[in-house]
Amino acid sequence: MQVFIQDLIKNNGYQATDLLAVLRAVQAQYQHIPKAAIEQIAALLCISRTQVIGVIEFYSFFHLSPRGHYDLLISDSITDHLLGKHQIAAYIEQALQVKLGEVRSDGLVSFDNTSCTGLCDQGPAGLINGYALPHLTPAKIDQIAGLIHQQIPVSAWPADLFAVNDNVYQAGLLLSQAIQHGEALHAGLERGFKETLKELDISGLRGRGGAGFKTATKWQYCAEETADARIVVCNADEGEPGTFKDRVLLTTHAHQVFEGMTLCAAIIGAEQGFLYLRGEYLHLYAPLKAVLAERKQAGLLGNNIINAGFNFDIQICLGAGAYICGEESALIESLEGKMGIPRNRPPYPVTHGYLGKPTVVNNVETYMAAAKIALKGGEWFANVGTDKSKGTKILSICGDCAKPGIYEVDFGTSIQTILHDCGAKDVLGIQIGGPSGTFISNTEFARKIAFEDLATGGSFIIFNNTRNILDIVNNFTHFFAHESCGFCTPCRVGTSLLKNQLDKIVNGHGSAGDVVALEELCQLVKTQSHCGLGQTAANPILTTLARYPELYQAQLKKISYEPGFDLDAALETARQMANRNDAAAHLSQLED
User: Fold this and answer.
1) CA distances from 560 to 28, 346, 514, 551, 577 (A)
2) CA-CA distance, 440 to 442, in Å (whole number)?
3) Residue 111, SS3?
4) Is pLDDT at 587 greater than 60 in this prediction?
5) In this structure, which long-range contacts are made by residues 512-520, counting pairs with CB atoms below 8 Å and at least 24 apart in sequence?
6) Would residue 65 count as lying in a domain?
7) What is the mean pLDDT of the chain?
8) Which of 302-311, 432-441, 474-483, 554-563 has the lowest average pLDDT?
9) Which residue, 188, 212, 211, 213, is CA-closest to 199?
10) If DSSP codes are grouped into helix, strand and coil, which group holds residue 428?
11) Are residues 223 and 204 located together in one domain of the fold?
12) CA angle, corner 93, sides to 88 and 94, nearest 5?
């Protein structure tokens, strides 16, 4: 092990920023991070042992105790629940003789939940040693169990077990025709990179990750910073349940995404770039590395790109299972080899980002759009959409519809039109923007996808009238409690309290006043949390409570009294018990 780790860290150049990559390799080799490895890694990288342990404990894909030689995870996202996750999990337990959340006694296999695999249109889905397993069925589980019991390496398993489909059903400005490799860069050079930035401004392109900040303005701010180096980062950590568009873009349009990043580098004067790839997309890592090598060979990366006299290279960094790293400052912390805890802002990444350098962080879809705008011009893009929302939006549509997959729609398209296109019928409601977004009811389908109405990073989960809204909200609330980074008390404690309070109501143990207490707690978590996770964690409760208050009230316990019960005496007794912990709830029930 000492030799393995020594060579590993030497190959990474003894850089503490590569701690996640080092830990991923050790985890893959030994099924956990051994204590002796922690000591050696800390010494070789010149960082504290507590920093290494902190990082291991922060990311869900790292473990201090051994996992199975075959580590199977199943998605616990609501979309997988709709497709039979619980039945498949029970079948796995039987086929592999291992309980959910445990390692089998012989150490061969372990089985557990994971928040989301990014395969929401192809569930129930899982991961085996980090590699995607779509469309899990009893027959597929039987095949997997046979391979495991024969101890055949995952690398030798049949390819069809790992076959992930793109499922692109509707193409628009971006998906209808891919640009040729290098086209956008040559167009930018011919026009002039400063003039190309003006075209981006004319286009009205706004960040496609959800926040919607104007892309040209962000690039301009970074370019104007006085610094010896600037950085370009592509955020491919789409951990929001229900979102999978970036997976498809990186599978089919990786060249165009990298071209957009290179264009950004030429405009702002950067020589270093990173693609931060969510850990669940391990299956994309090798193909993306091959694309980068191809671009370097073609003179589209590296030194003197397209003979224009500028240098730029891109490194792919894999996450390790932390939803919070989708937030740009948490992502930068992770790139630096740290726990992905969001930074205080200001300063913003555009002035103080990766290692304190001016940094542009944009979404996969944003870079892809920027490349095509450089080729086609700003007006081409701005002529589509609305006044405040230019161009198109790529949606990940899943849930109760005939054709779950990728749809590119013009901004301003109505929800009703989208539901028709994907074959959704008898719809109860839609979760737009993932758990952190908005739940809309079937009375709101005239609303439109646009920053001025329903803004979204791309998640679009459809629920029909057979679904229970409180089950959906419960799943989302448990998700946030699990994914809280723990940095601030309002989120760390608040999300757990939300989970417990909602469980109490959903399980029929709530009483008068509990819904009011739930709403008050929601407001506290929303207004006092440090970052966007906590600030949006209460959205599933608040948006459904506003639309379906009767559902919450219907779950409360109904209090009945025997004939001859003296209510006045009971109230007086409760008032006298005011110093007891349960007195307030008891009094509230009686008064109601």
Assistant:
1) 58, 55, 18, 20, 21
2) 7
3) strand
4) no
5) 512/556, 512/559, 512/588, 512/589, 512/591, 512/592, 513/584, 513/585, 513/588, 513/589, 513/592, 514/556, 515/545, 515/549, 515/552, 515/553, 515/556, 518/545, 518/552, 519/545
6) no
7) 94
8) 554-563
9) 188
10) strand
11) yes
12) 100
The residue with tokens 């077990």 is: 161
Whether 98 and 183 share a structural domain: no
**483 falls within a domain:** yes
Pairing mode, if any, of strands 313-318 and 359-363?
unpaired
Q: In CATH, what number is assigned to the domain containing residue 134? A: 3.40.30.10
Q: Which H or E element spans position 397?
A: strand 392-399
Predicted local distance difference test score (pLDDT) of residue 562? 60
- Do 86 and 156 belong together in one domain? yes
Judge if 224 and 288 occupy the same domain: yes
The answer to whether residues 369 and 418 belong to one domain is no
Q: Domain boundary at 431, 446, 467, which? A: 467
Residue predicted with more confidence, 573 or 2: 2
Do 296 and 275 reside in the same domain of the chain? yes
Are 460 and 466 a contacting pair, CB within 8 Å?
no
Helix (H) or strand (E) holding 440, with range, is strand 438-441
Asked if residues 353 and 332 have their Cβ atoms less than 8 Å apart, the reply is yes
Residues 432 and 547 placed together within one structural domain of the fold: no
Q: Rounded to the nearest 5°, which phi and psi values hold at 457?
A: -80, -10
Could you tell me what percent of the chain has a pLDDT over 90? 90
Tokens of 83: 């497709």
| CATH number, residue 531 | 1.20.1440.230
Asked, for residue 64, whether it belongs to a domain, the answer is no
Query: Residue 35's domain spans which residues?
Result: 2-58
Identify the CA nearest to 522 among candidates 508, 542, 548, 506.
542
> CB–CB of 327/342 below 8 Å?
yes
Name residue 15's amino acid. Q
Domain count, the chain: 6
- For the segment 196-239, what is each residue's pLDDT rounded down to a tens digit? 999 999 999 999 987 789 999 999 999 999 999 999 999 999 99
pLDDT at 577 over 70: no
Neighbours of 111 (CB within 10 A): 24
Distances (CA, A) of 563 to 80, 453, 566, 567, 592: 49, 54, 9, 11, 18
Contact 436, 537 (CB under 8 A): yes
- Do residues 537 and 495 make contact, with C-beta atoms less than 8 angstroms apart? yes
The pLDDT tens digits for 363-385 are: 999 999 999 999 999 999 999 99
- φ/ψ bin of 458: left (φ > 0), alpha (ψ from -120 to 50), beta (otherwise): left
Is there a domain that residue 584 lies in? Answer: yes
